[in-house]
Amino acid sequence: MALTGLEIFKLLPKTNCKKCGMPTCLAFAMALAQKRAKLEDCPDVSQEAKDKLAAAAAPPMRKVVFGAGETQVQIGQETVMFRHEEKFHNPTALAVTVSDKLTGEDLKKRIQTVNALQFERVGTKIGVSAIAIINDSGSADSFAAACVAAKTGGKLPLILVTRSPKAMAAAAARVKDTVPLLAWAEPDTAEEMAKIAKENGCPLAARADSIEALAELTEKIKKQGVEDIVLSTPEGANLRSRLFDLSKVRNLALKKVFRPLGYPTISFVSDGSADAQMAEAISLICKYSGIVVVDTVEPHALLPMLTAVMNIFTDPQKPVQVEAKVYPIGEPDANSPLMFTTNFSLTYYTVESDVEASRVPSYILVVDTEGTSVLTAYSGDKLNEKAVADAMAKFGVDKLVKHRKLIIPGYVAVMSGKLEEATNWEILVGPRECSMLPKYLQEVWS
Amino acid sequence: MENDGKKKCTVRFEPSGLGITVPVGTVLLEAAHKAGIYLNSICGGDGYCGKCKVTVDEGQFQSRPTTLLTPDEIRQNVVLACQAKVLSDMRLTVPKSHALETSQILMDTDAHRFSELAGEVRAGIFKFDPLVRKIFVEMSPPTVHDHTADHERLYLAIRRQVDAPIMQTGFRVLQKLSGVLQSCNYKATVTLGRRGRTTEVIEVEPGDRRKRNFAVAVDLGTTTVVAHLVDLTTAATIDKEATYNSQINFGEDYIRRIIYAEQNDAFDEMQNRIVQDLNSLIVTLAARQKIDLQEITTVICAGNTAMIHFLLNLDPTRIRREPYVASAGFVPPIRAAETGIQINKRGLLYCLPSVAAYVGSDIVAGVLATRIFVKNGVYLFADIGTNGEVVLGNRDWLVCASSSAGPAFEGSGVKHGMRAGAGAVERMAIREDGSVELKTIGDMPAAGVCGSGLLDTLSELFVNGLIDRTGRFRADGQPGLTQGEEGWQFQLAPERDGHHELVITQADIDNLVRSKAGVFAAVRVLMESTQTKPEDLEAVYLAGGFGNFLNVRQAVTIGMLPDVPAERIQFVGNTSIAGAKTVLLSCKALETAEKIAQSMTYFDLMSHPQYMDEFMRAKFLPHTDLALFPSVTESLMHRA
């Protein structure tokens, strides 16, 4: 069981010496519990405490890395069941299959297509992060040839998928410099596969018919000296049973700190139409797959999957912001009121709904305050006359309205003097609570 | 005064008749300040508290639009002084309501009711060993055989009585030493002050003056400054006095004051104001008790970090900016006179240590006074002031956080709120027939509602179904609800004998709910971070300037404090001053306070991922999650 801050605290010297860079031993203990600090930073910790903490400090789910260079993929190391508890750390990697039955131009083209599955969404690049070579042919030579083709034909990390140790040995030796993920070791091939993984320095996926068998299998692999393991949970009869197994593995790993299952997972979705694959893949992204391998190369199916990954792996600790700009409410014209608020989404949407309720067409100027509310931003100097004046200039509010009047939130009425000087606009102090905005706009403005 | 060629106007304030000449365009509130007129202005001229109303009898002015004036008031030429500019010579009437308050702050009488909390020193928990003490030394005068110099002779005599390995004497004392010793035949009273491990000879007086050694302990609050006069020879508190913090004109919370000082380069002014507040308290106490200011040798202060910074004129500007740093948490003793405090010229000013920018020495004093730092089990301490600070812990660990609860429970930011003074509603109940029962401080006509009354009101409105769980009025024919300027409101007292009616508005309720939500969210973050369950809490101590009587159960009913049995909740009043006095009377307590400050782990709520969620969840009565308040839920069901 992972130790809580208070449990770790009991093992520390309790001198509050600040040598670790934290104000108190408890603050350090809590940072340790959240993996934000390293035990080595405490110069006075006893050996006994070190031993106890080292055992407890190992992450409940191991981090596994495959691929090399800038396209390297990192999965695992998750610490929570639900995102709001803290955050999810490593986004699910999407991989697309390439069959080794393909040869020549067909193979090359398929590899190119997969590599090209990259998109840009709200300013961020997202895309397929690995290529899975499937040993459909049953031939070791074909498999190795396809793997080499994938290595030379693009930058994406490789996942080598075969049940045959012979095929795996042949292929892995040829592409080991790209650090591919080897899939799979099964109970009967565990020792051979583990040997190949160890010789080539590659992580290894493990696959069994039940979670219990999977746990035994990882122990076996670990005994062979391979620590970087990825779990391939039983494929199961249906999606429901797969999600159930994935959730159970995650729960055992994190809540019970059951080490044999403390690894990230890989799931395969290779049946059905592109649309069916999309639906299934998104379910698996939501529930705990570290890697999802699909067969489809249809952009319309892949983009939603990537969007799902992007959304689920958003850090909830960062405040949700709206874009800083001028928002017209209703159909405002050059005589409509102009007011500003901050870009904390909760603040903006509250103001927006009250302006809407007033039925007075208006402009709301949103000032970037790093996602903080009006008073917080003002107190922390993120909202000041300069920030407002800059936003007014940047978004050209002087061209939107003929009048030169700006309504400001009542809570920052104190800004009005400086703001008047900075903008030469007349500053009207609005109500403190935006629930009073309808009354203000209807009575005071008009 | 500005002289930019602008036309000058004369502004006259009735009924005092005081006048002032100011340039055209001067804001009325500023003109009033310059004329020496006190106008109530909680928001510091921001135009939202609506307290600075004056009536224009004659003259031209320009005023900004506001929703804080009724149509009647506008007809009667009432303006907000902070929103109106002078355009011509003017004559104004200042309403009587501005004149009240100042001299009527109620003294904290909790101390004697919680003597087990305040009396550690007398109870012998800390050894009686005041920070500044007077001892009487009798030396044998020098002879040919014993020609030790006067200064060393004095040290030897002191060390016979006091353990003082390191000693130090000020230059002025040294200069007059021989004269004093000879004048009294080497029988003198020495004032010794502790400065860390050093013992300083502060004063040498002829004869035995041991009995005349006094100190003033101060709770330096954002809103109220409280001073207790303490006899350092008997450890007794001999008098108490309180005043408003006159910085309040620059903003009701300290962040606003920091911003004001920054923008107007007014740090000196901030210091002057608080020092003047202190001096007037000290002078009042000394005069009343017939004590010479020279006999006051010590001032000890506990207060939030920003107030201590203002007092010492330390740079407070980084308190409000990431990463929220104070200039000093542990302030060494300094000469009180250096700040302008008028006691013995060589007397010392001590400040209790603070924890962080937002958890000040008042909270350290609270932990010291409630003694949670020596206890087993887990204790919760909440100090509801302008900020709501929360401490959780025991002898092994202490965690703390500060929520910007806002001053609603101090009566500020509430339409008819007031601080606990004469005429303040301190208890409120709704009878079965729906009528309202009020108890005011001093049984005076109801002038406003103080913290405890507001707590009662919120709770009573809720349990009687006049407001729903979101705090909204249930405006379906409920008695007592009327339509006011700001929508539905509840009448506490009708207009009577020249006193305006008392109401609670929807905005007031929203404000109170937000305040309690801030406090409870802070409590939850600390409890969750330490895996503390409500049943683990041995006791909950509630401190703050609510008033004299606090029905602690109501604090649970509205969901400000966790649902623990009422007998485990104790209202402890002003622990800031209780802790300051403990330190004053025992060097050991100062060491302990420093240890407490050092060991408290501060949680920054602004950057805490759970705080916002907890806050939103706590904005219901008593809470979104009723499972957290089983006893409240049960009593509501029972009632229904």
Indicate the percent of residues in helices of chain A.
40-55%
How would a textbook summarize the main sheet of chain B?
6 strands, mixed
Shape of chain A: globular
Q: What is the beta-strand fraction of chain A?
A: 15-25%
Q: Low-confidence segments of chain A, ≥5 residues, pLDDT <50?
A: none
Biggest interface, and residues per chain?
Answer: A-B, 39 and 41 residues
Q: In total, how many beta strands of chain B?
A: 29
Could you say which structural class the secondary elements and strand pairing of chain A correspond to? alpha/beta
Helix content percent band of chain B: 25-40%
Termini separation of chain B (Å)? 65 Å
Distance between the termini of chain A: 64 Å
Shape, per Cα inertia axes of chain B: globular
- Structural class estimated from helices and strands of chain B: alpha/beta
Global mean pLDDT of chain A: 92
Tell me the strand percentage band of chain B.
25-35%
- Helical segment tally of chain B? 17
Query: What is the rounded Rg of chain A?
Result: 28 Å
Instruction: Give the rounded overall mean pLDDT of chain B.
Output: 88
Strands across the major sheet of chain B, in which order? 14-13-12-15-17-16
Number of strands of chain A: 17
Instruction: Indicate the low-confidence ranges of chain B by residue numbers.
Output: 99-119
Topology record:
The complex is a heterodimer of chains A (446) and B (640).
Chain A lengths: L4 H7 L13 H9 L13 H11 L5 E4 L6 E4 L16 E7 L4 H12 L2 E4 L2 E4 L2 E5 L5 H13 L5 E4 L3 H11 L5 E5 L4 H11 L3 E4 L3 H13 L5 E4 L6 H16 L11 E4 L4 H13 L4 E4 L4 H14 L13 E4 L8 E5 L2 H14 L3 E6 L6 H6 L5 H10 L2 H4 L4 E4 L7 H8 L2 E4 L7 H9 L1
Parallel strand pairs in A: 3-6, 3-12, 6-7, 7-8, 8-9, 9-10, 11-12, 14-15, 16-17
Antiparallel strand pairs in A: 1-2, 4-5, 13-15
Chain B lengths: L7 E7 L3 E6 L4 H8 L17 E6 L2 E3 L7 H5 L2 E3 L3 E3 L3 E4 L16 H4 L1 H4 L13 E7 L11 H12 L4 E4 L1 H13 L3 E9 L2 E9 L7 E7 L3 E8 L4 E9 L9 H11 L2 H22 L7 E8 L1 H8 L21 E2 L12 E4 L9 H10 L7 E7 L3 E6 L4 E6 L20 E7 L5 E5 L7 E2 L1 H13 L17 E4 L2 E7 L8 E4 H24 L7 E8 L7 H6 L11 E5 L1 H11 L1 H13 E4 L7 H7 L12 H10 L1
Parallel strand pairs in B: 1-7, 9-11, 12-15, 15-17, 18-27, 20-29, 21-23, 27-28
Antiparallel strand pairs in B: 1-2, 3-5, 3-7, 4-6, 8-10, 10-11, 12-13, 13-14, 16-17, 18-19, 19-20, 21-22, 24-25, 25-26
